[in-house]
Amino acid sequence: MILILILSLIISCISRKHTQYVLHGNYVLTKAKFFKIETKNGIHIFHFKNDSIEGIFTKVVDTSFTNKNYREIKLNKKYTLYLQKQVYANLRTEIGQETIIDNGILIWKTGMKSQHFVDCENITGNLINPRFTLLKYIDPNPVKY
Q: Using CB atoms within 10 A of its CB, is residue 121 exposed (0-12), middle (13-18) or buried (19+)?
């Protein structure tokens, strides 16, 4: 019995290949590195990627936000990101050409290599909460099929 317990503990500690976990239909949890951060017209444009996706999202510049748990984001460092995708009301409608503009800046358009995300829940301004835990976002009442 103890051998089985120790074996299961070792197996659970082995890193997984997949770095993207879908929590709900429009929420994604992933570990990724920022390779570019731009600041234009009062917004931060974050470009990130990992082995499975490349993405982009924006945040408003917020110089008044202070929290001892949040740290400044550094390039080429791996972070856990809790991302929100765009939700479309009518899934039967085909999505044609789409452009996303924020504060007069073209952020994303159809055909770009990266995916656009509406928000990243654990980032405020250019600060990230490195103490982010998945437990906060796990639904205690998952949908049963």
A: middle
